[in-house]
Amino acid sequence: MSAYDLQVTTVADSPLVRAARRKSVPHTPVWFMRQAGRSLPEYKRVREGIAMLDSCMRPDLVTEITLQPVRRHGVDAAIFFSDIVVPLKAVGVDLDIVPGVGPVIAEPVRTRADVERIPELTPDAVSYVTEAVRLLVAELGPTPLIGFAGAPFTLASYLVEGGPSKNHEKTKALMHGDPELWDALCARLAQISGTFLRVQAQAGAAVVQLFDSWVGALQRRDYVRFALPHSTAALAAVADLDVPRIHFGVGTGELLPLMGTAGADVVGVDYRVELGDAIERLGPEYAVQGNLDPALLFAPWEALAARVEDIVTAGRAAGGHIFNLGHGVLPTTDPGVLTRVVEHVHEISQRE
Ligand code: CP3
């Protein structure tokens, strides 16, 4: 711990929040998408015999799981343990998270009547989220908690396809075949995701991240017409609160500047784009987050450390840089390597 860390007494002054606001930092802040969960033995122990969605509704368990990677790795932020489909479950969509598969929807959404059956989300329907965030914020002290939600396109893809999809063919057929119905579905999803973000921010989350994991499947013009307005609406739900907004998707090299215009302070970059190129495409008005290839955590340390150094160096060209992976931690990752990456990022970014 450096002298500066000892002086950080508020979340607003934490390296993560400062980087998101493009202010100077004592070291490059680092956290990992999917840091809480499947890569940690202590996570597997507490989850034993408890279904994923059930665990998300238990504030004691959510608090413990969210804190595990903070204790173990010394990351600069916690991310709330939940799933992008939790708010859909909360409004009554019949869905399950099937181990090894992902979210599976009992009755896929394809018609006007299907869309009309999805109610708006009210904060009362996710009171367990409010409770867990409050518990967490009290435990975390000056370490910021990141709240999150899924973006309308990615949620719509699960709902329309009925589960995970490689080609998103039913989603694209609906989008192009009945744009009005598509907009009605996504407007409802923007309300649900926006409310889910707002609940977390109002309970004390210091930063929010909107995940549009599968939006890289769209061309630019389709992104502009069918996804961007709805992501903008979801992020607008927290615009009046003092929380920086991170926006991330996979395979989005073509979309990065557009994603920034959705209302992001920070644009998450996946590992397929060189960070320096992403910074050039985005320009100086955004901070960036990313973008180590999660598979490189399996490479020998020298190769991995060299790439970590390249990313930290490239990040200096941005107004703010939050070190992260280019997508989530893979299940078989050695957690010891993650800890070592955190230490390395902190050390090399302090050396000026
Ligand atoms: O770590 C774990 O795998 C255990 C818990 C778990 C989560 N989601 C946590 C999560 C499980 C079993 C799921 C199911 C699920 N939901 C999957 C994985 C299927 C599998 O078994 O591999 C997927 C792909 C989803 C849908 C989903 N959830 C997406 C697309 C996203 C956005 C992030 C991404 O990976 O693109 C999520 C968010 C999510 N799921 C988070 C967590 C803790 C929050 C974000 C984070 O921690 O970075």
Largest sheet: 7 strands, parallel
Bound molecules: coproporphyrinogen III
- What proportion of the residues form beta strands (DSSP E)? 5-15%
Q: Would you give the CATH topology? A: TIM Barrel
- What distance lies between the first and last C-alpha atoms, to the nearest angstrom? 17 Å
CATH class: Alpha Beta
Give the proportion of residues in helices: 40-55%
- Total domains: 1
Given the structure, what is the number of helices? 16
> Radius of gyration over alpha carbons?
19 Å
Strand order of the largest sheet: 1-4-5-6-7-8-9
The run of helices and strands is: HHHHHEHEEHHEHHHEHEHEHEHEH
Question: Key terms for this structure?
Answer:
352 residues, alpha/beta, TIM Barrel, seven-stranded parallel beta sheet, two-stranded antiparallel ribbon, 9 strands, 48% helix, 12% strand, globular, binds coproporphyrinogen III
Task: Present the secondary structure layout.
Elements: H1 3-7, H2 15-20, H3 41-47, H4 52-56, H5 59-73, E1 78-79, H6 86-90, E2 95-98, E3 102-105, H7 112-116, H8 127-140, E4 145-150, H9 152-161, H10 169-177, H11 179-203, E5 207-212, H12 220-236, E6 245-249, H13 256-261, E7 266-268, H14 275-282, E8 287-292, H15 301-315, E9 321-325, H16 335-350
Parallel strand pairs: 1-4, 4-5, 5-6, 6-7, 7-8, 8-9
Antiparallel strand pairs: 2-3
Helix pairs in contact: 5-8, 8-11, 9-10, 9-11, 10-11, 11-12, 15-16
The chain binds coproporphyrinogen III.
What does this entry look like structurally?
This protein has 16 helices and 9 strands. It is an alpha/beta fold. The protein has a single domain, classed as TIM Barrel, CATH 3.20.20. The chain has a 7-stranded parallel sheet. It has a two-stranded antiparallel sheet with strand order 2-3. β2 (95-98) and β3 (102-105) form a beta hairpin. α9 (152-161) packs across α11 (179-203). The model has no long low-confidence stretch (mean pLDDT 96). The structure holds coproporphyrinogen III.
